[in-house]
Amino acid sequence: MHTYLAANHKRNVKQHDTTDFKALLGQWERRVLLANNAFSNGQWLSTIALYNQAIAHANQLIAISPYRKEATFSLLVSFHNLSDTYLQYASEAPPEERMAIYHMALATLSEVQTRIDTQAVLLPDNTDVLRARRIAHQQRWLLLKQHPELEIALNNTPSIDNSFTVFAATAGKDSH
Question: In this structure, is residue 12 part of a structural domain?
Answer without folding.
Answer: no
